[in-house]
Amino acid sequence: MAPASSCHATSMAFDAPFVGNTHQIRTVEAFDADEHAHNLTDWEQSYDQITRGRFHGTLAELQLPQMQVFRECTSQAVRQSCCVWPDAFWFGLPEQSDQTRINGRLAGAHAIMVRPGDCEFELVTPPDYAIYGIVIRRNALLQAAELSGSRIDWAQLACAEVIHVDNNSRTSLLQTLAGLLQNDGGCTDPDLRQQVLLNTLLALLDTSAVDGAVSSSFQRRQRIVAKARDLVLAHHDQAITVPKLCEQLFVSRRTLQYCFEDVLGMSPMQYLRLIRLNGARRHLRQASAKSLTVQDVAADWGFWHFSQFSSDYRKLFGQSPSQSMLTKTH
């Protein structure tokens, strides 16, 4: 896995966005974090549940001629690996929380997150979370800015993760998004809807300020965390310990602890267990089709003490491993 902030050297295999688009609001719910990740149209995503309890996610999505608009809600804290289609910009507006991390950085209460398409990024979101998202084709945004006379530093925007905006403009954009995602009998013309949203977004970007670039020391901490995740996933049948990670990454235990706390807000040990438990859950949800047992899957993810695995699994996901095998979601 590449560091979460890196752009792909080659384009990912996305379907053509918006095929068969009816410009109607689509709503869907899920009771598994990774299933929820795949409900968002034309994104490449993977979610790991972090906090304990049954997961519930809802999504309201609207596809316009050159844009995708959505509101996503998640009941549990989640680590998200995300990537949208090429030649686009994503803008993320959390409703209230100031605890969102994008590529390890706290976004802040009144900021807006932004990433270009075909560029993997990581979010860590808290429990009971709601976020509005806008994905717009790059050319459509450029043309609209030119017509309106907006002055936007596109090179800087393409490299940004967090932009600071006027709070009144941010509130106005949130209200516009909420209105678009309500079936209240209002305007249904897709082109007019898109123009209203474009005007509101450009007014906000015209007065925004991009947060400064991250320091080289923080980038190093990001790389260490990404390498640790790669090692765990590459050897998921082994219970890799923190001392083993330190040895493989050539860092001290104190440095590793600091990197994880600074980038993810959790300890290395907690993160390693979460990654393996979430990996086992994905595997279990496919296990019945492959004639695997719960014990097979547990061993494949380095859990040799089955009773402890079962207990930890139930605490995190709110159901037993065997119940996950019986869950049919697709």
Automatic annotation (TrEMBL):
Keywords: DNA-binding, Transcription, Transcription regulation. Residues 226-327 form the HTH araC/xylS-type domain. SUPFAM superfamilies: Homeodomain-like. Pfam families: HTH_18. It comes from Rhodoferax lithotrophicus. PROSITE patterns: HTH_ARAC_FAMILY_1, HTH_ARAC_FAMILY_2. This is HTH-type transcriptional activator RhaS. SMART domains: HTH_ARAC (SM00342).
